[in-house]
Write a structure and sequence with these properties.
By secondary structure, the chain is of the alpha/beta class. It is about 45% helix and about 15% strand.
Length: about 290
């Protein structure tokens, strides 16, 4: 069943939980995530990021229609989200396909320009009945610009989201959810993350909208519990699920003989599904 991401956030708020937003890069990842959500009766968000096109993995045009169609056909509550959008033509294309939420990422822009562009994204999304996520503060890891990928893995507290600025930003843009910087990193962690969980609480109270956690893979169970309790309602997750799929394929690679591509996808999907289920259970915040 296709749902607006904002509605999923509000439902998660009632239960003190978070919704996993899983990046999908092929049919195996879509089916792995949806089967996990259906078996757990968990809401979920299928997410596409333009970096997957930039890296030559798959384009929005190729995978977007399948994401929407499979979300509609699923027995789970499924949002379909366009992540880290910087190109308004691409954002509109996702909305035309039926995506129920989009992100405009102006976090590397001057503050006033981020506000101006995010406001435009909100106005556009409203025409489709879709919700909007924006980002304030600068996260370590991989970031998209208009024409290339930037990678910087240094954690710098000066780049953490400022609560008062977050309040001003939400009031001036009307966004439905806010991705914040509080110590996570996109991609694989090179060392254990040190999250400012108290900052999450202050951001949720001050900004007045659900907090989104990017770089959600690889975080400890205790840190998940703390940030969800303090107001994180959407957690972006991909790297460690994809890694689980890759490691499963490597483990079952025959020394002699043939491995067909369909066998590879089957092995990877099974491992990614189990990894996604583990993440969803933690996001339910019942442990």
């Amino acid at each position: 069943m296709l749902y607006n991401a904002k509605d999923l956030m509000l439902e998660a708020e009632k239960h003190g939980a978070a919704v996993g937003a899983f990046n999908v890069t092929c049919m195996a990842t879509i089916t792995a995530v949806l089967e996990a959500a259906e078996e757990l009766d968990s809401p979920v968000i299928l997410e596409y990021a333009p970096i997957h096109d930039e890296e030559g993995i798959i384009s929005l045009e190729e995978i977007g229609p399948a994401m929407v169609a499979m979300a509609k056909a699923s027995s789970a509550k499924v949002g379909v989200h366009y992540d880290h959008g910087v190109d308004f033509d691409k954002i509109k294309k996702a909305l035309d396909m039926g995506f129920t939420s989009v992100m405009y990422d102006g976090s590397i822009l001057p503050y006033e320009e981020n506000i101006e562009n995010t406001r435009k994204a909100v106005e556009l999304a409203k025409k489709y009945g879709a919700s909007v996520e924006a980002e304030l503060g600068k996260m370590a890891g991989v970031t998209m610009t208009n024409d290339h990928v930037v990678e910087n893995r240094a954690i710098d507290r000066s780049n953490f989201t400022n609560p008062e600025q977050a309040k001003d930003f939400v009031e001036k843009t009307g966004v439905d959810m806010l991705a914040c910087s509080f110590g996570t990193s996109h991609g694989l962690y090179t060392s254990a993350p040190r999250l400012d969980t108290e900052l999450v609480k202050e951001l949720r109270q001050t900004a007045g909208v659900p907090v989104v956690m990017h770089g959600g893979s690889g975080v400890s169970a205790e840190d998940y519990r703390k940030v969800i309790t303090n107001g994180v309602r959407k957690i972006n997750y991909y790297s460690y699920m994809a890694k689980a799929g890759g490691e499963a394929v490597r483990a079952e690679m025959p020394e002699d003989g043939v491995l067909f591509i369909h066998d590879l996808y089957k092995i990877a999907k099974k491992a990614m599904k189990e990894n996604a289920k583990e993440a969803m259970i933690r996001f339910m915040n019942k442990q």
